[in-house]
Structures are given as C-alpha cells and as structure tokens.
Amino acid sequence: MEQIKLTQYSHGAGCGCKISPEVLDKILKGNIAMPDNDKLIVGNHSKDDAAVLDMGNGTALISTTDFFMPIVDDPFNFGRIASANAISDVYAMGGKPVLAIAILGWPINKLPPEVAQQVIDGARSICKEAGIPLAGGHSIDSPEPIFGLAVNGIIAVENIKRNNTAQEGDILFLTKPLGVGILTTAEKKGILKAVHINLAAHQMMQLNKVGEALGKLKCVHAITDVTGFGLLGHLTEMAESSGLSAVVHFDSVPLITPDLLEYVAQKSVPGGTGRNWDSYGHKIGEITATQKAILADPQTSGGLLIAVQKQNVHEVIQLLQENDLGNFINPIGVLKSKEEKIVRID
C-alpha cells in the first residue's frame, strides 16, 4: 500500500478544528431550557472539560467526548494523538479513565479501510497505556477522516476538579510546553527543521496521567487542559468563571523548542490562532505579536493548567517530579482579584 498522507484529506487539523469560543457560545445558547438534575454535578452550565454525574455512593461518573481531523500524516500516530487528547478530559477533572468507545468518520471512496485500521490500532495502543479497554464505537462514511473517543471515568465526589473553582492567590502550573500548532504549521509550509520532525507528535501522544493524582490534592483548586483555544483561551475561561483575573509570566511559559520564536518570525502561525484571538482578545492586556502567536496557539492534546494554593505549591512540585514532569515545576503565573482585563502578560 502506497504511503498515505492523512493531512491532505482534511481542511483542518487536530484541536485547531475546534469552533472558536465566540461561535461556540452562540451554538450552545439555545432556547430550550433543560430540567434540573440534582445528580448532575458538572454540565452545560459551565465550560468545563467533561460532564460529571453523582452516582449516589460517594463516586461520580465522568463523561466526555473529543474528536478531530488529522494533525499528522501517519494513521497510527493520528489514532494515538486523538485518543490521548480525548482521555485528557477525564484527567483534567482529576479522574481515573475506565472505558472508551471510538468515533470514526472515514471517506471510504478515498482512503482504504486498512488505513482506518491503523488509526484504530493507534487508539488501542493509547488506551492500553491508560489501562482502559477500547470497547466499541461507531463509524460513518464522511467526506474527511475524523477520529476520536467517547471516554468515561470515575472519581470520588470530594476530589472533582473543575475549571471555575480557582481562588485568588493561586499559583499556575502547566505540564506541557506550548508550540504544537506552530510546529505543525511549519511542517505544512515546508520550513520545519529536521531536528524538530516528530517533536510535536511525540508530545501530543503523552497522556496527562498526573491529573488523577492531582485530583487527590486538596491544595489543587482548579484544573483544565490546554487544547484548541490556546493557553490564553483556557486560562481566560478559568479566571473569568472563577471571578478572577490572571497574570502570565511569559518568560516562564515552557516552549516546545527555543526555535519557536524563529518559526513565528517566519509567519508559521495557524489560522486557529487568529480565530482564537478574535474571540477573546478584548479580554487580554497589552501583548506583543510574538506573545500572542505563542499564547493563543491552538494546542492538540496539550498539558494540564493547574491552579494551586500558594502555601502548598511544594506538594504539586513534588508530585510533578515523581511523575517525570520535573521540567514543569516553575510557575507560569498567578491568579489575582478581578481587574479590567481578565489576563495580562508580564
């Protein structure tokens, strides 16, 4: 079978396919009121990473779904990336994933089924790493390749981590560097350096397993994962929904490579960055063009953004080190009382 390049068959890529926050707000607004459900702990009333249902025995069910079009050409890696990204939403709630089912849209008149089989195998490999079964799913004939998972997880009700419960003075940590969208765009433009080939893919396939352990720490007040809306978008959601503002220490934000600044200078910026900025740029303080390109860069299967009580940051630092995340123990910012702008850069 000849080499297939999946990205040639889709108009978007990874979490950059996501509908912008502004448009999504309009879609979700709705005119039909849903009945209250006293068992629903987290639902549409907040912009969180997953839904959470109280099972009535001190345990809650976490339910989420995520899917997108290829961000890499290799079908096996596409399956791995899409699956790691979907499972991340359970980790972002502090939970333990327990079950996944697949979502597959496939252009059967353009791509052979053997390629889709490699995508599924990639998903199986990530589910195995997460310790969960890929137990079934649903597939359709679609104009472009689409893949993702619906994932269920469990968590003790007292350990649920939301994105809207941060507190003033909380210190911010990020568990993966930024720049995935910039690197994948550089690859499409043919300017990616040989040393950076597969760098983004490798990062996107890393599970955010530390989220389950973070869920058990009382000093962790809020968690979200950084995906298609970029760091600025997801931090804006966290701060604004918590009634706060945030300060980002730009020089402390981890970058996937120091050469990221060079790629930005070469205008290797995905279209999703502009859509993100159009949605929330008015909420951000003074910022340079380079900072905007990096901080609003759409991430696929990005890291966890963690808000930690200042007095207990040592607990999170120790946990990160124990989980081979010692490169991410430097805080990237802090949450403050509400200001005119939701996020400012220093």
Q: In terms of topology, how is this protein built?
A:
Elements (H helix, E strand, L loop, with lengths): L20 H9 L10 E3 L8 E4 L4 E10 L6 H18 L3 E11 L6 H18 L3 E8 L4 E11 L14 E4 L5 H10 L9 H6 L5 H5 L5 E6 L4 H12 L2 E5 L11 H6 L5 H10 L8 H7 L8 E5 L4 H10 L10 E5 L5 E3 L1
Helix pairs in contact: 2-3, 7-9
Q: Which terms would index this structure?
A:
12 strands, alpha+beta, 11 helices, six-stranded mixed sheet
Task: Walk me through this protein's architecture.
It is a single chain. The longest helix has 18 residues, at 75-92. The protein starts with 20 loop residues before the first helix and ends with a strand. Helix 2 packs parallel to helix 3 and helix 7 packs parallel to helix 9 (271-280). The radius of gyration is 19 Å and the shape is globular. It has helices at 21-29, 75-92, 113-130, 180-189, 199-204, 210-214, 230-241, 260-265, 271-280, 289-295, 313-322; strands at 40-42, 51-54, 59-68, 96-106, 134-141, 146-156, 171-174, 220-225, 244-248, 304-308, 333-337, 343-345. A 6-stranded mixed β-sheet has the order 1-2-3-6-4-5, covered by helices on one side. The chain has a 6-stranded mixed β-sheet with strand order 8-10-7-11-9-12. Strand 2 (51-54) and strand 3 (59-68) form a beta hairpin. With 346 residues, it is of the alpha+beta class. It has 11 helices and 12 strands.
